[in-house]
Amino acid sequence: MIKGRSGTGKSSLLRLMNRLEDPREGEMRYKGRAFSAYDPEVIRSTILYIQQTHMVIIGSVKDNLMLPFTFKINRKKTRPDENTLLKLMDEFHLGNIGLDASAGQLSVGQAQRLCLIRGLLLSPEVILLDEPTSALDDESCRIVESSVVRLCLESGKTVIMVNHRKFNSEEITPRTYKLADGGIREET
Amino acid sequence: MSPGIIDIGYTELCFGLFFILMAGIASFVHALKLERDLFIGTLRTFAQLFLLGYILKIIFDIDRMPLVLLVFLFMIFFAAWTIYGRINEKEISFFLPTFFSMTISFFFVTAMVTTVIVGVKPWWKPQYFIPIGGMVIGNSMNAIAISLERLLGDLRSKRKEIEMKLCHGADYKEASRDVLRDAMRAGMIPSINSMMAVGVVFIPGMMTGQILAGANPVEAIKYQIVVMVMIVGATTMGTLSVVLIVRKLCFGKSHQLILRDGKKG
Question: Which domains can be identified in chain A, with CATH numbers?
């Protein structure tokens, strides 16, 4: 978990990890290799960044979920069938929404979870979440937090999350880092 | 004076100012505050066109290929500069790529028309190459400017959507495919629309000029058809090449979108 006041660079840190920005000095490494040694498209689908603002494209829920598989780098990956999509939708408490429903009709919380599912379909190793609960009500917030717990415990994913709220979970205690004064330190 | 055309004397030409006088009175009566612009516009029209007429006469008399090509390059340079000024983009420098891609595509289209369609010999004959090139450049310039404005505007306003696609493994071309398509369409639609309306809603200037000069209207039509299709071809080639290059300039080497939200620099 990454915390820090506004403007300390929390989102910039996530964007650096996803290569949406390159560092002005120094070097980022992943698994011992410099970021620059990876193709940007490969690193981005391995370390997946889900933006703070939920972003759905015009079209159905299914169009949104399958969007990443229209990109060249993901075409060789197994495309999920409808049953897999419906199962995931159900796990994220979106079971009452059909795959053909318009994505534009979803609430903020529902769209946020749809974005989370869309990212998970690519089976990334690391997921970067930028304040995923900032615009959510308590109920949606609880669902997203339980999804994060499940990702860590059941899927073995590493989740790096920028979050202002207290993370409510009895199952895991996230390691928390604070950004301040141009540096980063672990909070105990 | 060409056979078949009635020469307009300088006194008669000045009578044409009556229309400007009418516009000036209307501007004054209705407080449009356009009198100064009308005055400067009229002066510039007279000065620029007389200058063009004398320069063209000199070029036609000299009749040398390097000079014709130099004039052609100057026209493209001026068009690229006009686009650059109109877009007013500070974050990326696109003048030189725009100039070079306009030069290649416009030269190709103009030379194709003079060589293959009109069959003029030599292919650079100034009486053909310069007016045809001028029509190609003038019409495509507007299309390129419209496309670039749309491209840069959409890349900024749709930044979050583009970055979402990049985050899911898209390369810069995939992430900006929709933006590119909309920009191309915006630039090309006016020239396609004019093909729909030509001869019904308006009689084009070139054809009118040929008819006034005494040409057979059926012959004039053939030239006009060539001009219309040539403009669509030049617009497509010019717009596509410029928009593709400028789009590439908007992304970094790691496919990051360089343009920032809501500002031009």
Answer: 2-187 (3.40.50.300)
pTM for this one? 0.84
Count structural domains, chain B.
2
Establish whether the linkage from the previous residue to B122 is cis, with ω within 30° of 0.
yes
Q: Which residues of chain A make contact with B158, given a CB cutoff of 8 A?
A: none
Closest CB from B167, B174, B256 relative to A48: B167
- Tens of pLDDT, residues A160-180: 989 877 777 777 778 889 988
**Residue B117, both tokens:** 């369609």
Residue B160 domain boundaries: 63-249
ipTM: 0.89
Nearest CA to B191 out of B151, B242, B142 is that of: B142
Same domain, B55 and B96: no
Q: Are residues B157 and B49 in the same domain?
A: no
pLDDT tens-digit readout, B140-185: 999 999 999 999 999 999 999 999 999 999 999 999 999 999 999 9
Provide the shortest C-alpha distance from residue A66 to chain B (in Å).
11
Q: Do both B58 and B115 map to the same domain? A: no
Among residues B20, B36, B62, which one ends one of the domains?
B62
Domain boundary among B35, B62, B89: B62
> Which residues of A touch chain B, with CB atoms under 8 Å apart?
18-22, 36, 40-42, 44-45, 48-51, 53, 55, 57, 67-68, 70-74, 115, 118-119, 122
In order of B93, B166, B170, the CA distances from B177 in angstroms are: 22, 12, 10
- Does residue B264 register a pLDDT over 80? no
Half-sphere exposure of A72 (CA within 13 A, CB side): 10
